[in-house]
Amino acid sequence: GDKAFAQFLTDEIQEEKKIQKHKSLPKVSGGWELEVHGTEAKLVRKIAGEKITVTFNINNSIPPSAEDDTQEGQKPDEQEPELTSTPNFVVEVIKDDTKQTLVLDCHYPEDEIGHEGEEESDIFTIREVSFQPTGESDWKDTNYTLNTDSLDWALYDHLMDFLADRGVDNTFADELIELSTALEHREYIKFLEDLKSFVKCQ
């Protein structure tokens, strides 16, 4: 059984490498530095007196696909739809002269992806906003967290503009999807390779 499994994995790895779009990870424009630790990626950008970091994790970042409703007339050998990774991402804005970090928790709403053509529609939304002490790895649950569900629209728009001024806009969000998808695919291939050597190891 293990032999067949290992053979299957070998074929699968070859297939995945064939469809791999990026041999190296795509860059995000706007002078962002990328750090990758396993499945977590961090983009860092410094602008006048501020450091902006965007952190995301590719685990569970591929939305469940609606595979059951295969279109009538679709040939079974047609390409599967491309998997796209749309991770939640956290933006931290750190000002040099304060001990506070503004943290904005953003995500891609599932129903928004792929609805191009709607003017001025943001492809990501801010879900929560809070202040956290700068430099502390553990965030405090006791700090007030603003949930944007019940937020005044004008305030929400200002927050979106605040992010856009720091380079976190639709273009960035598009490029982040591209980067995350490439990273996810790379990790998936690596996982298959690890699984193969694990299965073959007698």
From TrEMBL:
Report if keyword DNA damage is assigned.
Answer: yes
Note the topology in the membrane.
Peripheral membrane protein
Q: Which residues form a coiled coil?
A: none
Which InterPro entries does this chain map to?
MAM33, MAM33_sf
Per the UniProt entry, the signal peptide is none
GO function terms (MF aspect): complement component C1q complex binding; kininogen binding; transcription corepressor activity
- Record bears the keyword Nucleus: yes
Question: Tell me, what is an example of a GO biological process annotation in this record?
Answer: negative regulation of mRNA splicing, via spliceosome
Q: Which domain of life is it from?
A: Eukaryota
According to its UniProt record, where is this protein located? Cell membrane; Cytoplasm; Mitochondrion matrix; Nucleus, Nucleolus
Keywords in UniProt for this one? Acetylation, Adaptive immunity, Apoptosis, Cell membrane, Complement pathway, Cytoplasm, DNA damage, Immunity, Innate immunity, Membrane, Mitochondrion, mRNA processing, mRNA splicing, Nucleus, Phosphoprotein, Secreted, Transcription, Transcription regulation, Transit peptide
Annotated region Disordered: the residues are: 59-87
Mainly localized where?
Answer: membrane
Annotated Gene Ontology cellular component terms: cell surface; extracellular region; mitochondrial matrix; nucleolus; plasma membrane
- Family named by the database record: Belongs to the MAM33 family.
| Protein's recorded name | Complement component 1 Q subcomponent-binding protein, mitochondrial
Native species of this protein?
Mionectes macconnelli
**Name of the encoding gene:** C1qbp
